[in-house]
Specification:
174 residues; single chain; 0% strand; 7 helices; mainly alpha
Amino acid sequence: MSGTAWQYLIEFSQVSLLAFGGASAALPEMHRRVVQQHHWVTDEQFSELFGLAQSAPGPNILVASLIGWKVARFAGALAGLVGMVGPSSLLAYGVTRFWDRHPGARWREWLLHALVPITIGLTLSSAYLLTLGAGRSAAAYALVAATAAATLWTRMHPLWCLAAGAVLGCAGWI
């Protein structure tokens, strides 16, 4: 693997440990490291790769591999996958074993209640970052607001919002 791929593996191994609530919650830290710190991709490329990862079947962690591909081709894609899945999987395995040994402990309930606002905050900050990279037009911001409203207050499947964005983008309106 190239030096960049190794660096990418190290960066995403660290980011994976912050993925409370899934990979989407780790997006702000991914963005900080990939866009702001290392300048491997731009804001717009980051948003595009995230959108592509969300539209593809499979886990939403695919964004780490797509960014890795952009950074260092196959070695980068592999580094992104291993970096995002490896450390967090090992941590989850260890925590689950400890969790299962203490089924009636009060700290379990406290921990679950504490993690909910953390996860929501990380997810909302992810949405904010993606909005910044989505485009600077009023139409783009309106689409993001409409998608957020539809997600929060309806049971509409998110793929409909993705499809609307794709149609509006292909038509040149966004």
